[in-house]
Amino acid sequence: MQVPANLEKTNVEKAMPVAERDTVLVADDHGLYRSGFSFLLRDRMGFRSVIEASSFDAALDRLAETPNVELALFDLAMPGISGPEGLRVVKEAYPSIRVAIVSGSEERNDVVKAVAMGLNGYVPKSLADDEIVGALNDILDGRVFVPRFMTSGNAEHRAKLASSDTPAAKRDPGGGATNKAISPRQRDVLDCVRRGLSNKEIARELDIAEGTVKIHLAALFSHFGARNRTELATRS
Known about the structure:
CATH topology of the largest domain: Rossmann fold
Number of helices: 12
Structural class: alpha/beta
Strand order of the largest sheet: 2-1-3-4-5
Helix content: 40-55%
Order of helices and strands: HEHEHEHEHEHHHHHHH
């Protein structure tokens, strides 16, 4: 008996299951987006566990308490994060974890900074599901993903990127500080810095990992445009 072509195709698809992966972190302050993204990561990419966070502080807590995280995905507009710079130390603190940005921003400056900070990729939210899956597979395979518009001649994207070529000093007259408010946990760390506490003492007082303290400090240095603790304490 001849097997219908569509049935053959169905059987082939069933015979090719998605490779199973361990744990991924999705850090985004939009609950609906997190839910949809989490389904995609489980259904299309085979992650057994998806842990979610709605702020930078919560994301760091999840990373500190969760073993076997393979991939950590951060939104740039999330509370407590001041840009790609704040994620550099996340990468340094967790070298075995692939760290990438999944953002609605398509500014060239954000992409360039993400790559310069040693992150594993920058994935625009505007991509189709198949493109997002492909981008994340590239990242998990050890490649650095950057969006196609970075090298595209598309006129619409060139117009979008033109605004991001404005010198930093013009965009940020405060000498490095952004308009985003720091998170409650970062405020606690800042208070400890003003009191002269070491990283180990801050970790003990706030009951967080010392590596997490370093990450918060990096975000604070970026936010206030400070180069060291003294500048941080005086500028803030």
